Amino acid sequence: MKILAISGSPRPNSNSRVLIDHAMKPFKEADWDVALFDLSELDIRSCNGCELCLDNNKCVIDDDMHKIYKEFFECDAVIISSPVYNRTFSSKLSATLERIYAIHSLYPLKMKPGGAMAVGAGTGAGQANTIQAIYTWMLSYGMICVPGELNGVTAKASDAGEIIHQERRLIQAEILGNNVIDVALKMKG
């Protein structure tokens, strides 16, 4: 089985990436294939609204998004982590998620489980909004939203890598990973 993991931060060594790495531990222990994309390392541009994809389910923009398209079809589950910018997910993640439009009519994510994580600088910095936005995107494409301990994983951190000192949040990321595995296995029957 395969998990698609997306770290939505434009910064290398981000807190979002640390959470993704911890959420992937249960998948690695269960011997799943892990397709991890750190958006800080990729060139993904925003949709230009040309709608040429409606004719052939292919995006005309030549960038790294084509690597992720393949994984939407091959994965059995998805986990997405994002920093909070302006009370929602990052623009890098927004560009990535909006670009599924090119293949949306093929339903590559239908009935696949997904989890969400958000890291913001303050306690009211929009983590809940970010989790909700990710889960709304998942629901829009027919996915099953999987909670962590409560909802998704939310954390307060600002400096790159700061989250590594928050053991409780790292454990919550692993709980989310385990919950996604449980739902994916139940879906496979």
Give the helices and strands as they follow along the chain. Answer: EHHEHHEHEHEEH
- As a whole number of angstroms, the C-alpha radius of gyration is 15 Å
Report the principal-axis shape.
globular
Arithmetic mean of pLDDT: 95
Count, helices? 7
Keywords:
six-stranded parallel β-sheet, 189 residues, 7 helices, Rossmann fold, alpha/beta
Walk me through this protein's architecture.
The chain has helices at 15-23, 25-29, 53-56, 65-74, 91-98, 127-140, 167-188; strands spanning 2-7, 33-38, 77-83, 113-120, 144-145, 153-156. The chain is built from seven helices and six strands; from the N terminus they run E-H-H-E-H-H-E-H-E-H-E-E-H. It is an alpha/beta fold and 189 residues long. It has one domain (2-188): 3-Layer(aba) Sandwich (Rossmann fold), CATH 3.40.50. The two termini are 13 Å apart. Strand 3, helix 5 (91-98) and strand 4 (113-120) form a beta-alpha-beta unit. Strands 1, 2, 3, 4, 5 and 6 form a six-stranded parallel beta sheet that branches. The longest helix has 22 residues, at 167-188.
